[in-house]
């Protein structure tokens, strides 16, 4: 069976878009090819989505027009040329991933979905809202949006067109012949409650990782490579202060309450630098910035005594399962997918959303209790082996591909 994957990139997000598991899909009888807007790999398993002269320049202009009009993912009419691509014509099924990054028009999807059996992985709630990627506590997505309280959230709008965009998306989904895929039960619940996705089949397929790569390692060696001082309790966290969805500011506020914790701390951050200067001298601060080397990322997990993921909103939480697979306890916020993904309170530690005092208490509890860290770390590894093996991910996707394609075939044969 030939499956075509449509995504913004092949390498970026490869754990989410199936690029990492194409070999495992092949073992399940699925030949998978990726058409992507940004081809970063030299692997022949991916190709440029729209190899049309000047398409990038035209798309950049259209994106500026969309921004001025406060609309998004509508004007890229090159999307209607997808059936001209040989890979589309050869495919038995098309699997769409992130197609709202400004290179693809959702308006093409109803027509495209009638040409081929279609699956769409909803990686975040943008499909269910009038404009934002995450509604951040707002419930207007349940009633059609409009009167938006946060037009500044990505994707930013200069004027409120959220009600119109909500209805536009609703019409698109209503006209699509599509099965939707989400990675968590919390996303399934939101999708099923959404007026936009009403009546669509929704399948929960958690993402998977390579458990031979993400596994417990030599903590002492990792700490030495990263320069961690001896006898420190090490906290690893993603520094993403520019995002309203990742909650790094809550971690900083919690850290301010830990001056007199009683044990020396080392804080390891990735993704960004320069945000923990006030703690230099109080704790050891190791800011790695943006990390492209997977071995360095593994060191941050292996060196850690705990991983803190204070996202106030999250559709899955890949770094949480990576940390658990490496045998580390994870602290998360309630009201997101993360308590479900980390099986809190049995494995993960979940605290009330945006509650800085509770977050500080959870960090303090684990910092002062080595036995609790060990117990939760072992349970996290066992959970990763049970639920988040990439081989299970590939097998479940392959089964879904086969069933969706068969259902379309049966439906076609029953038409007069």
Automatic annotation (TrEMBL):
GO molecular function: glycosyltransferase activity
SUPFAM superfamilies noted in UniProt: UDP-Glycosyltransferase/glycogen phosphorylase
Tree of life domain: Bacteria
Gene Ontology biological-process entries: lipopolysaccharide biosynthetic process
Keywords: Transferase
Protein name per UniProt: Glycosyltransferase involved in cell wall bisynthesis
Classification lineage: Bacteria, Pseudomonadati, Pseudomonadota, Alphaproteobacteria, Hyphomicrobiales
